[in-house]
Amino acid sequence: MGYYFNNIQGKKGSQFSSQLRGVNLEKVLIVSIDAAKYFQKALICNYFGDVLEKPFFFGLDQLGIDLICSKIERSQKEIEAERIFVGIEATGHYYEDIVRELGKRGYKVTIINAATTYEERFSALNWSKTDDLDLYAIAHELIQNKGMENRLPEGHYRKLMTLTRARRSEVRKRALLRVHIRTLMDHIWRDFQGYIEVENNKPKKKLIFSDFWGQSSLFFLEFYPHPSDVLELGIEKLTSIIKEKKLRIRTSTIQTLYQVAQTSIVKEKEEVSVELLLLSMAIQDIKRLSENIKTLEKEIETALLQTDGRLLLTVPGIGVITAAEFYSELGDISNYENAGQLIKKAGTNPIIIQSGGTSGFYGKISKQGNKNLRFMVYTVGKCLAQHNKDLLPYYLKLKERGKHARKAYIALGNKFIRIAFSMLTHKKPFDSKQNGYSIFEEIKKKLNFTKINTYLNIALAA
Q1: What are the tens digits of pLDDT across the range 398-431?
Q2: Of 314, 345, 332, which is closest to residue 459 (Cα–Cα)?
Q3: pLDDT at position 152 over 60
Q4: Do 424 and 342 meet the contact criterion of CB atoms below 8 Å apart?
Q5: What does the pLDDT read at residue 361?
């Protein structure tokens, strides 16, 4: 323990040095692995870089895992290794199965950031990139203790992470599809998205439907996307259909829609038949994506309420989805001793620039961490700046000092990491100083699929 606070790499360095201290370095085994979708490659050497097993391929199946383990065991016997360090580059999600399977065989695998491997090759003045060069770089990183961590998300962390990332993917697909639909409507009926009225020689944009993606608008996009469809029905028939479908559309909106259909300049329906076909397909796709998102959000809410992450719902400005993403990307905080380690994990820690005895200054953030957590730190900071009156003064103070809004969001997100670390460690809700704040009401307005009484029963049971 005497070396713990003195190591130049802090906790990570102390753990690494404790494993090496007193060990003959000739008896330290280094195993570097380069993961890919189909072709995994590994190299085995000693601490001084002497190759024991030249780069070899192995499959990601039982035979492949047996092969790499047998080679490790053979090399271990050859040099009578007392310590074994295994490292793998975090390439997409392909590395996860290898980490998991080797973990079952008793090997603790260090996960290495792909950016670190790039910098290692760059520092060697080698701009080539091959599997073998990557293996050599990974081996050097292990020797220099440049790995990130050796834990994969498990349990409810992994479940929430999988659900929230899947939802984010579906939301992005829907956003792209919405752009596509608007482009198609530019060709079919541009004024459906909004028309212009000139008042006192000033143009003003007006909308037929306040929410272009609402139920009413989507109904017309699906069944009556061309103005000729609306004109053919007439106002009385339109009113009858709307009542039959139980759509909440005002009479004034129906009249506006009909009037815009009369005055719009559009191509004949036959001329845009291809666009109409593509629009019909896109509408079906967007309905499917919206249904997928709703299903995922229900699962996310249910899963979040089973964890300590539900405490984050007591924070004004933090909704269910944001809380779930933030909580899952943070991971198990019991693995960390202070919030600063989580900030570094996110890569939102500012780089300190100091030389020659000067006081120095803080530069841009390091970006050497989990990009998904880094995105959530920014997102949380933005949400809090807009909706949390307790933390708004901190944001405004940063703005007064000349901070750009994006930098201020990240700084506020870092501050919230410290707050969340304390909340989750002590299992305490957010302590708001605002008049009228109620934990009960704050949580109630955020739950979409769960009754507040169910939430309280879960909280009390925990």
Answers
A1: 999 999 999 999 999 999 999 999 999 999 999 9
A2: 314
A3: yes
A4: no
A5: 59
Cα distance between residue 200 and residue 194, in whole Å: 19
Q: Is the pLDDT at 360 greater than 60, yes or no? A: no
Domain boundaries, the chain: 10-152, 175-295, 305-461
Q: How far is CA 232 from the centre of its chain?
A: 48
Alpha helices in 87-154 (DSSP H): 95-104, 114-123, 131-143
Distances (CA, A) of 130 to 41, 52, 144, 259, 372: 11, 20, 21, 65, 27
Contacting residues for 283 by C-beta, under 8 A, at least 6 apart: 181, 218, 221, 222
Query: Do residues 138 and 32 lie in contact, with contact meaning Cβ atoms separated by under 8 Å?
Result: yes
The confidence score (pLDDT) of residue 1 equals 42
H-type alpha helices, 29-130: 62-79, 95-104, 114-123
Query: Helix (H, G, I), strand (E, B), or coil: what is residue 363?
Result: strand
Are 191 and 260 spatial neighbours (Cβ–Cβ below 8 Å)? yes
pLDDT of res. 3: 46
Give the chain's end-to-end CA distance (angstroms, integer): 35
Instruction: Give dist(CA 228, CA 114) in Å, integer.
Output: 56
Contact 446, 313 (CB under 8 A): yes
Which tens digit of pLDDT belongs to each residue from 100-140? Answer: 999 999 999 998 877 666 676 666 545 556 778 889 889 98
Q: What is the pLDDT of residue 455?
A: 78
Which runs of E-coded beta strand occur in 146-192? none
Which residue is listed with tokens 């739950």? 447
User: What is the secondary structure of 154-190 as a DSSP string?
Assistant: -HHHHHHHHHHHHHHHHHHHHHHHHHHHHHHHHHH-G
**Per-residue model confidence (pLDDT) at position 2:** 43
**CB-CB contact of 153 with 90 (8 Å):** no
- How many residues would you count in the chain? 462
245 phi-psi bin (left φ>0, alpha ψ -120 to 50, beta other): alpha
Per-residue pLDDT of 66-83, as tens digits, reads 999 999 999 999 999 999
Range with the poorest average pLDDT among 8-12, 241-245, 265-269, 313-317 = 8-12
Q: Does domain 10-152 have CATH number 3.40.1190.10?
A: no
Query: CB within 8 A of 119, min separation 6: which ones?
Result: none
